Amino acid sequence: MNSVQAESKKESIEAKAEPMGKGKGRETLVDAVFDLGLSWAEFGVSQGKQALTQSAKTLERAAKSLDDLQRRLRKD
Predict the structure, then answer these.
(1) pTM of the predicted model, to two decimals?
(2) Phi, psi (degrees; rounded to nearest 5) at 56
(3) How far is residue 63's CA from residue 69's CA, in Å, rounded to a whole number?
């Protein structure tokens, strides 16, 4: 490792965020951004679940309608 790489590695280690401690009630910017991203991911998954549930209900109604149509066609 040359001196430039060593200095770069040293700077990257020093630039890492560290938590301020649980009792202090403060968090780093990295923690805040991570929490925000996690919240958006949770929201997105929830919305996806709702969309799939609604689609499943719609497909069930369509299948029932087709079944009713098939029964009426058989009767005639």
Answers:
(1) 0.54
(2) -65, -40
(3) 10
